[in-house]
Design a protein that fits this description.
Elements: H1 6-13, H2 17-24, H3 35-48, H4 54-61, E1 66-71, H5 77-92, E2 96-101, H6 106-118, E3 123-126, H7 133-142, E4 146-149, E5 160-163, H8 165-178, E6 184-189, H9 194-209, E7 219-222, H10 227-240, E8 247-250, H11 253-265, E9 275-278, E10 292-294, H12 299-314, E11 323-326
Parallel strand pairs: 1-2, 1-3, 3-4, 4-5, 5-11, 6-7, 6-8, 8-9, 9-10
């Protein structure tokens, strides 16, 4: 079957191929093409089954109008919502987004970056994992447009958009202390990711600022690979510690979910004595009859800022390396 071309669309509508090209490339408004005409072009393209040849367009114009997005774990609602925010914002710039999940594996992340570059994407938005520093250094050397989101590396100069993990964590722990909680346990990932490190540092410094001593016995670290098994083991150990803890603070929503699940399954939660806190949340937490307080990450703003950063680089409007740090919304603490 013959592939539908821009010429086929222009012939069907009796308009120039150039006009059709402008519409299909998202430049109708820029070229002052009437909205009604643009809609007719798009409708005819859909009717004929037109599919853009992004590689050919990239060769011809130098731009593919696409962004490659590497997410750490698309199964986590934080990352899926972030991907949606980035997709929506990119569309406002006339860009499409193609994405993949690294599953917190730097080898898979590297392969995705190479695939996207082979597809001639105009820029990359990357949520890096441990080991990705080599890939980022290579992008810097190649001067390839990219921006890191949610995480970054202190050792490498890069455009990045993140949440203020340190202060967000500090305020959550401070809130527990001001409510009279004295034994605040912390469940975190035992990884070297900067966001998790900053949340841990916020936890420690909040304790110190109120004269509490750091107790390593009530801090539990689990791995991504065996997250459910290790979180359950951590919870089991925390429940046996004496003197008893009065708050468990989870560094992310996935750990909080598994921790709450363990407490319900083992009937070990005492609403009067044990309080829960989480750096971020799942929507269902609003419905739980459980004393949990949590922050809400500004996911939509993260996506918008990431796209804004990459578009500046693509359009060569960037004035240098840009660092964006957004505050955690703690007004939603339950």
């Amino acid at each position: 079957m013959k592939k539908v071309s821009l010429a086929d669309i222009s012939k069907e509508l009796g308009v120039s191929k150039t006009l059709v090209s402008f519409v299909m490339n998202g430049r109708a408004k820029e070229k002052r093409i009437n909205d009604e005409v643009a809609e007719k072009v798009l409708a005819k393209a859909k009717e004929l089954g037109y599919k853009a040849d992004y590689l050919a367009r990239a060769m011809r114009t130098g731009k593919s109008q696409t962004i490659g997005l590497v997410m750490a774990d698309i199964s986590n609602t934080f990352f899926s919502k972030l991907a949606r925010s980035i997709e929506n914002e990119a569309a406002e710039h006339g860009y499409n987004v193609i994405f993949g999940s690294s599953d917190e594996n730097h080898r898979k992340s590297g392969k995705l970056i190479d695939v996207f570059k082979d597809k001639r994407v105009d820029g990359l938005i990357i949520c890096p994992t441990i080991g990705d520093i080599t890939h980022i250094k290579k992008l810097n050397k190649e001067r390839y447009p990219y921006v890191l989101v949610d995480r970054y590396f202190n050792e490498v100069s890069s455009n990045h958009v993140v949440v203020d993990n340190y202060n967000g964590s500090f305020k959550i722990v401070e809130d527990q202390i001001q409510m009279g909680r004295k034994r605040i346990a912390f469940v975190n990932f035992n990884v070297e990711l900067i966001n998790m490190t900053e949340r841990f540092n916020g936890y420690i410094d909040a304790l110190k600022s109120y004269g509490y001593k750091y107790d390593s016995s009530i801090v539990k670290n689990v791995s991504f690979k065996n997250i459910e098994k290790e979180t359950y083991l951590a919870m089991k150990e925390l429940m046996k510690i004496t003197p008893k803890i009065d708050t468990i603070y989870f560094s992310n929503n996935r750990l909080a979910f598994l921790g709450i699940k363990y407490l319900f399954e083992n009937n070990t939660i005492n609403f009067k004595k044990l309080k829960l806190a989480s750096f971020d949340n799942y929507e269902f937490m609003h419905l739980l009859q459980v004393p949990i307080k949590f922050g809400v990450q500004p996911i939509e703003e993260l996506g918008k800022s990431a796209v804004d950063s990459i578009m500046k680089q693509i359009n060569e409007e960037s004035g240098g390396v840009e660092h964006v740090k957004l505050p955690l919304d703690i007004s939603f603490l339950n």
